[in-house]
Amino acid sequence: MANPSLLILAGDGIGPEVMDEVKKLIAWFDTKGIVTFDVSEGLVGGCSYDAHGTPLTDETMARAQEVDAVLLGAVGGPKYDKLDFSVKPERGLLRLRKEMDLFSNLRPAQCFDALADFSSLKRDVVAGLDIVIVRELTSGVYFGEPRGIFMEGNERVGINTQRYTESEIARVARSAFELARKRGNKVCSMEKANVMESGILWRDVVQEIHDKEYPDVALTHMYADNGAMQLCRWPKQFDVIVTDNLFGDVLSDMAAMLTGSLGMLPSASLGLPQANGRPKALYEPVHGSAPDITGQGKANPIACILSFAMALRYSFDMGAEATRVEKAVEKVLADGVRTADLMGPEGGTPVSTTQMGDAIIAAMEASL
Ligand SMILES: NC(=O)C1=CN([C@@H]2O[C@H](COP(=O)(O)OP(=O)(O)OC[C@H]3O[C@@H](n4cnc5c(N)ncnc54)[C@H](O)[C@@H]3O)[C@@H](O)[C@H]2O)C=CC1
Ligand SMILES: CC(C)CC(=O)C(=O)O
Ligand SMILES: [Mg+2]
């Protein structure tokens, strides 16, 4: 049987730095005879623009459609800020999400015990936290038409459109309910039904899907602004949060700080199951290309490594090996190994990106 296939798109900024640590893990799994991936690499984002004049070539897009899973680092950076919108690095990532139809973006926020004092919130608020934000990823205001900057009279007007169809809401709601059934059996849906028609439809459809198909799951609704406040006030009230593309983007960065650092948050972007039973899938850290720390060896690779663990679980049915990676991360953190983003106000000596990766490999080795 053919080896499982991976396409690595490390991208820009710290993307390649954190992805190097994932490559070490892939090599480790190979050396140990646990699993050998058929790995190919490609360009996305600014590096692709530099090489080809586009943030994603058709060839790379086609390869992404063929493989079992895509691993992505991060895209973007100040060098590209003034580019025409159509060729900005971020458009490469949006194209991947849209054309692969990766509508369900799972963004778990889990607070490792060793980091409960590193969150900007009190230990009691975050210790033991384990929630998942399910973000709709292929529609909403990032994709709606009309969009653009137009002249209206003698001034410019910027337009983006929030647009959701019933079926788009229904499918992401189903993925949230399915996930909840495997966890705490609770879903909180967040929108702004008080001020947006798309929010009214969102609330109605989520409720309908619940009543018809998932009456056993506890469902609540919350306005997204209150949701942001509740995430800071008492995040452990949540199990699964389902929300739209924009609110999910913002709320998940916020949830990152409940775990100690944005450098800790992984994600899985999943489509519907294909004929082989596997969903189309892309795995990437929640963070961006972090231009402020690029090239300094300061990036925390854990979000990218935990994204690879999600790939093992969701694309390759290797739950036990995913747990092995997660436990290795937990062990390293418990041993006090910290990248700079995880330093408390009292300071200490941070390890580099590669040292963190090496420590995680050593913990994997010890787990055998
Ligand atoms: N999925 C993606 O590829 C994303 C790309 N971006 C792009 O990244 C660029 C920078 O955006 P920002 O708003 O600065 O967001 P960012 O997520 O890159 O960085 C925000 C802050 O978090 C820190 N940070 C992020 N990841 C870290 C890590 N692994 N370890 C330690 N510290 C980390 C950064 O140093 C920075 O201070 C922009 O071009 C943006 O469009 C932003 C978010 C997601
Ligand atoms: C296209 C991305 C840059 C948007 C983003 O911040 C994200 O998906 O987290
Ligand atoms: Mg974001």
TrEMBL record:
Cofactor note: Binds 1 Mg(2+) or Mn(2+) ion per subunit.
Site (Important for catalysis): Y142, K192
Subcellular location: Cytoplasm
Positions annotated to bind Mg(2+): D225, D249, D253
Keywords: Amino-acid biosynthesis, Branched-chain amino acid biosynthesis, Cytoplasm, Leucine biosynthesis, Magnesium, Manganese, Metal-binding, NAD, Oxidoreductase
Cofactor names: Mg(2+); Mn(2+)
GO MF term list: 3-isopropylmalate dehydrogenase activity
Its EC number(s): 1.1.1.85
Top-rank taxon: Bacteria
Catalytic activity line of the entry: (2R,3S)-3-isopropylmalate + NAD(+) = 4-methyl-2-oxopentanoate + CO2 + NADH
Oligomer and partners: Homodimer.
PANTHER family per UniProt: 3-ISOPROPYLMALATE DEHYDROGENASE (PTHR42979)
Protein name: 3-isopropylmalate dehydrogenase
Natural source organism: Cypionkella sinensis
